[in-house]
Task: structure prediction
Amino acid sequence: MIKATNVTKRYSQKLALDAINLSIPKGSVFGLLGPNGAGKTSFIRIMNQITAPDEGQVFFGDRALQPRDIARIGYLPEERGLYKKMKVGEQVLYLARLKGLSTAEAKLRAKKWFERLEMADFWEKKVEDLSKGMAQKVQFVTTVLHEPELLIFDEPFTGFDPINTNLIKREILRLSEEGATVIFSTHRMESVEEICDHIGLINNGQVMVEGPLLDIRKRYQNGTYSFVVKEAVEHWGEGTLLEESKHHTGNNYTVKFESYPGMVVSELAAKGTLVAFEEVLPSVQDIFIEIVENGAKLVPHE
Amino acid sequence: MNNPILLIIQREFLSRVRKKTFLLVTILGPLVFAALLIVPGILASMPEDDKKIIVLDEAALIIPEEGRGEYQLEYLDPRENDLVTAKEFFAESEYDALLYIPTGENWDPDFIKNNILLFGKEDPSINMVQFLDGILEDRLNKQKLLRNGVDPEVVAQSATQVSIQSYTVGEEGEEEQQSATGLKMGLGYIAGMFIYFFIFFYSVMVMRGVIEEKSSRIVEVIISSVRPFQLMMGKILGIGAVGVVQFVIWVVLSGGIYLATTTLLFPEMLAEQAAAGPGGAEAASIQGFEIFDQLRAINFPLIIGGFVFYFFAGYFLYSAMFAALGSAIDQEADSQQFMMPVTVPMLIALVTAANVIQDPNGPLAFWMSMIPFTAPISMMIRLPFGIPIWQVFVSGAILIGTFFTMVALAGKIYRVGILMYGKKITWKELYKWLRH
Result:
């Protein structure tokens, strides 16, 4: 859906994006992750054509990104807001028309969304008379109303209350199922791990790692396994015990090995005490720290 | 496909025109304006209380004079009174003022002129003092002339008032027009003032709009749909349209109210005006012809054309600057220190207006109307006086050129500024944004 090649963006003193290459597959839920100031917002603004890259190119589908593609993108910026003195309905229609919808079409769709999210009675109200949570719903509707093929959410869950966060997560996943490509940008990596199928990790303007989330986590597997055993286990042979806890079916051990612990598993299995055995994949957070400290692992040849 | 600039213009226009304050200002404005025109007339036509002045004229300087209009003079007998008894009498009387004219040794006019006293129950009005001054000076002058052996009648007859009839000669042919300096001054000044207020009022409105979008954080949502430049121009054009509508309503309403009140409520005032002046109706019709002649002396198409041009060009120039300014700051409170340098040229144009009027073709007037930042006001003041047409075109060309440059520069600052939060802005910083 989006392919960035060599995209570079400089601000007066700072290199915000340093020749990044990134591809965001069609239909994916893509997590654009990295700490604050990593360059996420710079990249998002380039996709939205708010700013232009100094070097490099962005492709939308199979051709270069064009001004009219704006109508096919829905963007919820980190800094968001609405005209306070304007009526909700009018405002939704205005923003939809700026994205190229006709008034009639915008009205039809807006009414549907307002029904769906139980906000039909907002229509005639002014934004300044809405509660924060209500305004957040309005903001969400304005982002998706023109049925964009690409949805970009910059720090979507900061500033949203928990009820809206769940509601919006649900709606976003629904849109994804209907075929939209979704980009989540956030510095709180754990918050989107569960919903992303692809990620790109950015630090200091560079892509540290990108690809399908599961592949990446497997690549960064570091020999950690979890065991649930009925009896207490004292010795783990080659392995180092990292963590131990009680489990309702036995004891839960997290152990790190240098290589695949086939021997340990078969011994426990033979005793008949092994309830569960599982490879522990590192969290995105762990991977990020690992990369920052030790550099990225190369993609193995297939 | 919707044209985004049109959509933005539409929103900017409607959101302001539908506000209650717009309605209020638009309707109250002409009322206040009309009141300013009418109320002085009403007040002036109201009969005032007569003022009675008691005079102790020891010098027998003005004695038979009975006063004029609201001022009535009556006399105390100088043989039976001095200043002390006169004051006592005055304090208990119903007279409004006491005038004391002493007689010096040898009846010396220079002594008298310096020792005339006026006492009032309250502060004597300037009008009263002027009225008395006039009488006293007239009498003293005559006495001095007599003493020097000159017949005041001769002096009165030889007093001459010159009325110069001035003409302007066109460069080609013998085309002559009668000048109407007073009317031109008024016209130029009013047009200049209007332009000043229009530019200032609506440019600041543009700045407020930009700050509002920035501080409510909607700006990033909008510019993910339209170019920042489109947003800026849409705002400038939309608010300009508000200004034009308001201006037209004001002119029509003010004129309507003025005409309605003067013809319906005060027909006698008009009649009085017509009948006033020596010679009555005949003179009035001559006056009428004079005004007609004066109006003919003014190139109205040029002035109206110039007004419309400088009105818009000046507004665009300044509103672009104010838009850039608004984009650079987060809060309106921060705007003051940056507004100052931007508004100074307009203030200079206003302050020098009197000098420009005095010498509409002098170097100050010329340069002020060439510099694009002062031209909208200064050139408007000069226009009624008939200036070389090439100057109008050069000034207009410079203004248009500056306007386009300024819009481009403002667009650059605006593009960076609207996404910049929490940064203390300096001029150096703004310059950096220009080169982004």
Remarks:
- Residues 179-246+291-434 of chain B form one domain.
- The mean pLDDT of chain B is 81.
- Residues 152 and 158 of chain B are 10 Å apart (CA to CA).
- The interface with chain A takes residues 1-2, 4, 7-8, 11, 15, 212-213, 216-218, 220-228, 419, 421, 432, 436 of chain B (CB under 8 Å).
